Amino acid sequence: MKSLFLASALGLLLSACAATTGPSGATKPYPKTTCVVSGNALGSMGPVITKVYQGQEVKFCCQPCVKKFDANPAKYLEKL
After folding, report:
1. Dihedral (C-alpha) 20, 63, 65, 23: value to the nearest 10 degrees?
2. Residues ≥6 apart with Cβ < 8 Å to 66
3. pLDDT at position 4
4. What CA–CA distances, in Å, run from 76 to 3, 10, 27?
5. Residue in 50, 47, 68 with CA at minimum distance from that of residue 58
6. Rounded CA separation 70/12 (Å)
7. In 3D, which of 27, 78, 79 has the Cα closest to residue 53?
8. Rounded to whole angstroms, how far apart are CA atoms 63 and 53?
9. What is the C-alpha to C-alpha distance for residues 36 and 76, in angstroms, rounded to an integer?
10. What gap in Å lies between CA 16 and CA 14, rounded to an integer?
11. Which of 33, 31, 52 is CA-nearest to residue 41?
């Protein structure tokens, strides 16, 4: 029973990791020096926030921009 649980947990963990990278397993680097949401210079609002969404690295100038991105990622990924 324990091994079944561990195997299930490991499978979930691996699938979560796979969702953060691209098809080849590599993350595409963020190509801009500005926030994809606001257009502000990265670092102008404090430390840069970085996340990976479906294999694409995305950088933000502040936490509110992360929330806007999370609400509609497709809208902002078009800008890349």
Report:
1. -10
2. 49, 51, 60
3. 38
4. 42, 32, 17
5. 50
6. 22
7. 27
8. 16
9. 6
10. 5
11. 33
CA 6 vs CA 3, 35, 36: distances in Å: 5, 40, 39
pLDDT value for 25: 75
User: How much is the pLDDT for 49?
Assistant: 98
Span 5-16, pLDDT tens digits: 334 433 433 334
SS3 57: strand
What local confidence, expressed as pLDDT, does residue 18 receive?
A: 40
- Round to whole Å and give the CA distance between 71 and 65: 10
Quick one: CA torsion of 62, 67, 69, 71, rounded to 10 degrees?
-170
- Confidence label for 65 from pLDDT (cuts 50, 70 and 90): very high
